[in-house]
Specification:
The chain is α/β, with parallel strands linked by helices. The chain is 42% helix and 24% strand. The chain folds into two domains: 132 residues, D-Maltodextrin-Binding Protein, domain 2 (3-Layer(aba) Sandwich), CATH 3.40.190; 91 residues, Periplasmic binding protein-like II (D-Maltodextrin-Binding Protein, domain 2), CATH 3.40.190.10.
Length: 259
């Protein structure tokens, strides 16, 4: 009897060890699929890429794109709205699975997170109030004015490190619409943003106009992913490729970026 009990214990122990070794840890992608939800961070203040509509729902180019990606992954999106400059940290710390928020690739960001393949290419713009009496004919001209920008963006980086705008003339905001409202009220003279959102903000708020567009800090936009998460990156990149081939992304651009 004792011998049988001892053998039984060995069998149970061996089974547990095999289960522990054979099962292995779930990958990030497997956890997402098992939960049926992907947590996606965004800063919903940047129309027409991501914003909140009159019904209180998140919408926009990035929002619809990510919803379609999630659908093809077989999961639903749980949106997490946070300040733009908190999104990369959110991905690093695992608070969100990825982030889509009109992100451009930079070498500095690439040190701490990974990026999907590009899905759209953008330009920069300088926005001023209709009552602006200054003169901006080239990018360097904004150095003499009070310039507002969303904190943590590539525009923030360009103003700080390329133009080397003085701190007394640089005003950083958590949200792009806050900067646009201060621009209209005269607290700042110029706002720098991606060209398409700048146009949308001018139309939404009124009393604003674009005085310059060009590629200064912007470029291809990418989805931000956890560093080293090759499985999730491949899943998203494969779907992005399908959407580009099918014309889905072109249709979204037509919907959100044309009159």
């Amino acid at each position: 009897m004792k011998k049988f009990t001892w053998l039984l214990c060995l069998v149970v122990l061996a089974s547990l060890l095999l289960a522990a070794c054979g099962g292995g840890a779930q990958s990030h992608l497997e956890k997402i699929k098992q939960a049926g939800v992907i947590k996606v961070g965004t800063s919903a203040d940047y129309p027409p890429f991501e914003y909140v509509d009159e019904s209180g729902n998140k919408t926009g180019f990035d929002i619809e794109l990510m919803e379609e990606i999630a659908k093809r992954m077989g999961v639903k999106v749980e949106w997490v709205d946070m300040p733009f400059d908190s999104l990369i940290a959110g991905v690093q710390e695992g608070k969100i699975d990825c982030s889509i928020s009109a992100f451009n690739y930079t070498e500095e960001r690439d040190k701490v997170v990974d990026f999907s393949e590009p899905y759209f290419t953008a330009e920069d713009a300088f926005l001023v109030a209709d009552t602006f009496t200054g003169n901006i004919t080239k990018p360097e001209d904004v150095a003499q004015y009070k310039v507002g920008v969303q904190s943590g963006t590539t525009q923030d980086d360009w103003l700080t490190n390329v133009l080397q705008l003085s701190e007394q003339n640089l005003f950083r905001y958590d949200r792009a619409d806050q900067a646009a409202l201060d621009l209209k009220s005269g607290r700042i003279d110029v706002m720098m943003a991606d060209a398409i959102p700048a146009k949308a903000l001018a139309q939404k708020i009124g009393g604003l106009k674009i005085v310059y567009t060009g590629v200064l800090s912007s470029g291809p936009m990418n989805i931000v992913l956890p560093e080293g998460d090759t499985e999730l990156a491949k899943a998203i990149n494969d779907i992005l490729k399908q959407l580009q081939q099918e014309g889905f992304i072109d249709q979204l651009a037509q919907k959100y970026f044309t009159e």
